[in-house]
Amino acid sequence: MKKTNDPKRAENGGRKHPPVRMLLGIALCALLSGCGRQMNKYELRDLGIEAMRAGDYEGAKQRFAEALEASNGQVSELQYDIVKYRAECEVRLNQFEDARHSYEVLSELDKNADNQWHYQEILAEITGIDRLSEAAELMEAGSYQEAYDSLELLSDLNGGMVGRTAYFNRAVCLEYLGRFSEAEDAFDAYLNQYADDEAAQKELDFLKTR
């Protein structure tokens, strides 16, 4: 029998090893939930959460949409959970109309009283964001009194971002309307609550020089 001079072939009886690239491909395929196997709603949900944690909100939203599609119209706690995650992605992407729709769906389907309060709170914030945008357009057009009036119901310092922004913008309107003493008082009150806001501090410092 002719001896081989190839030590690798001699070790395995002359059989060639599978190419390394092929082995890596097989392993990677297994890690990706199986070659050709369609992922179920639980796997898609988990991938969406992973994408959210990585800051890929658009990719996460797509995964949640696929998870809902894989649910075949079933209404359950899992579906509520997926829609909640999708809605959060939409808010983070500033897709407020999509977020509004998601929370309206949740409010209609999920009858849990505690959850209902949360959904309504978020819907109110989204509505407030619309009002803030309208007021910002008025300010850009120089209609400061109209903007000031439109922000009245939103303006507060209770910790909500919409109320905080509305309060700040009302103070700016007062400044542009020449009501400097009122504007100074407004920024002073604002900074008592949000002392680290550098923009507000600059506005207050400017007003004190007038």
Can you tell me the residue ranges where pLDDT is under 50 for at least 5 consecutive residues? 6-18, 20-37
Rg, nearest Å: 29 Å
**Mind describing the biggest β-sheet?**
none
Average pLDDT number: 81
Q: Tell me the span between the first and last alpha carbons.
A: 105 Å
Per DSSP, what share of the residues sits in E-state strands of 2 or more residues? under 5%
- H/E series: HHHHHHHHHHH
- As a percent range, the share of helical residues equals over 70%
Task: Please work out how many helical segments DSSP would assign.
Answer: 11
Tell me the overall shape: elongated
Counted beta strands: 0
Q: Which structural class matches the secondary elements?
A: mainly alpha
Write up this protein.
This protein has 210 residues and is mainly α. Helix content is 71%, strand content 0%. It has helices spanning 7-11, 20-31, 41-53, 57-70, 77-92, 96-109, 113-140, 144-150, 161-176, 180-193, 198-208. α6 (96-109) runs antiparallel to α7 (113-140).
Short description:
With 210 residues, this protein is an all-alpha fold. 71% of the residues lie in helices and 0% in strands.
Summary keywords:
210 residues; elongated; 11 helices; single chain; mainly alpha
SSE blueprint and pairings:
Elements: H1 7-11, H2 20-31, H3 41-53, H4 57-70, H5 77-92, H6 96-109, H7 113-140, H8 144-150, H9 161-176, H10 180-193, H11 198-208
Helix pairs in contact: 3-4, 3-5, 4-5, 5-6, 6-7, 7-8, 7-9, 8-9, 9-10, 10-11
